[in-house]
Amino acid sequence: MKSITLYDATLREGSQAEDIAFSLEDKLRITVRLDNLGVHYIEGGWPGANPKDISYFREISSYSLKHSTVVAFGSTARPGKPVAHDKNLHDLLQARTAAVTIFGKTWDAHVRDVLKISLEDNLALIEESIAFLKQHVKEVFFDAEHFFDGFKSNPDYAAQVLAAAGRGGADCLVLCDTNGGCLPHEIQPIVRAVKKSCTARLGIHAHNDGDVAVANSLAAVQAGCAHVQATINGFGERCGNANLCSIIPNLQLKMGLRCITDEQLRDLTEVSRFVNELANFAPNTHQPFVGSSAFAHKAGVHVSAVKKKPATYEHIQPERVGNAQRVLISDQAGRANIMHKAREFKLDIETHEPLLQELLSELKELEQQGFQFEGAEASFQLRMRRALGVSKRYFDLVGFRVIIEKRSDNELISEATIMVRVGGSIEHTAAIGNGPVNALDNALRKALEKFYPTLRDVTLLDYKVRVFSAGAGTGSRVRVLVESGDRHDRWGTVGVSENIIEASWQALTDSITYKLLKDELNREA
């Protein structure tokens, strides 16, 4: 089976989408999930563009990724200065990644009207920039920006750009439909023409402005590209990029082109929902392959047929991408997912049929209230343990109070007072914080650290609030997603309430409970 190289650009290009702002912690967590998914290359950001990306490359260098190579992204050298002295190229090298991607102008109109240099100077910039990077970096990819528009405008010059990149030593020439306006019937003949005159490995990078980025990517692969750049859920600037969650199963299940293992493919739905959660986006329920409605059946004729032979209304087996068949009037949806997570958590739930049904009903009720567990695996595991009767209560709340005081000097002070019971002891304490949630977190930690000293290692890394049922105004229900970590792990927890403090309390207590559970399991191992 021919293999295709997957290149994910979610952390850089996906974050350019309107309303998306991944935190450093988000980017690190997404990197780990993409690595587990088996993505070959992960574009981490543009070094030097902002402090967050600088921190990302520093932090990710300490991670031991199993499948993925992290890539730094940037442009060719700026015109007018020696390539060896270009700040952008040196910033790329400072990221200390094994691979680098740079983009350069392919469309002659861009060279003349945007860069305002000669066509010959642009070719020299591309060749010299890549050659300089190849002296220091194992792999260099060249993104031929606006390649298809450039080819249609001036095919000879577009070919010269690729030739210059090839002379510089580029390991892959990525043909970019940057405006996203090409159609599949245009993509294929252009790729084939390039393939005839170019021996280098070719890639495709498609934007979705014409709503055909996935189709364009598949068409390019059929025509000879063996490297595909895309983003999870199609996130990206304007109308987005090609959607990796559709590209992977189409390549692997429909076109017979190996991308990742079958086991990794079964994680695709969870990865899609995980990235949505960290982006603070409600998942697109109708998204192909990974949406909750992708294999949902409502019409009576459909239900009757699919129960006898699923293939009558399902183009693949949903379990192959980690999804599940749903009959909308049935209570069977979700069982496979719960059993899959139980195995992951090393919990035996398959032999407890009544408990499985009880947990399934509870989860459906929680989803109605607004809970989502894709980015809150720790909360999900705790609920599963409670359902199985194997959970432990490390502390009980007696009560808490949060006070916010506005003083005349405009300083806002938040103070939390809390009383908890640990075994037979009552601990009553108070703490201040940068806000009511931070104060509550500090007070709870302060009360418990006397009994559980390892809580001093826990750090609150990220805090997100999503408002839904927005028609209720300030009385709307909110979902709080908290990410916590210690010296070894990171985990997510969730809370939902009309009261943001209550939702935060749920997420914070789950976080601390999970830490204590994790420590106990590690001691027993």
Describe this entry's structure for a reader.
The chain has 18 helices and 16 strands. The strands form four sheets. The chain has an eight-stranded parallel β-barrel, surrounded by nine helices. A three-stranded antiparallel beta sheet has the order 11-12-13, covered by helices on one side. Helix 2 links the parallel strand 2 and strand 3 (69-75). It has helices spanning 24-37, 51-60, 87-94, 108-115, 119-134, 147-153, 155-168, 184-197, 213-223, 244-254, 262-265, 268-278, 300-308, 335-344, 353-369, 377-388, 436-448, 500-524; strands at residues 5-8, 41-45, 69-75, 99-105, 139-145, 172-177, 202-206, 227-230, 296-297, 326-327, 396-406, 412-422, 425-433, 459-468, 477-485, 490-497. The longest helix has 25 residues, at 500-524. The radius of gyration is 26 Å and the shape is globular. Among the domains are: 5-260, Aldolase class I (TIM Barrel, Alpha-Beta Barrel), CATH 3.20.20.70; 395-442.
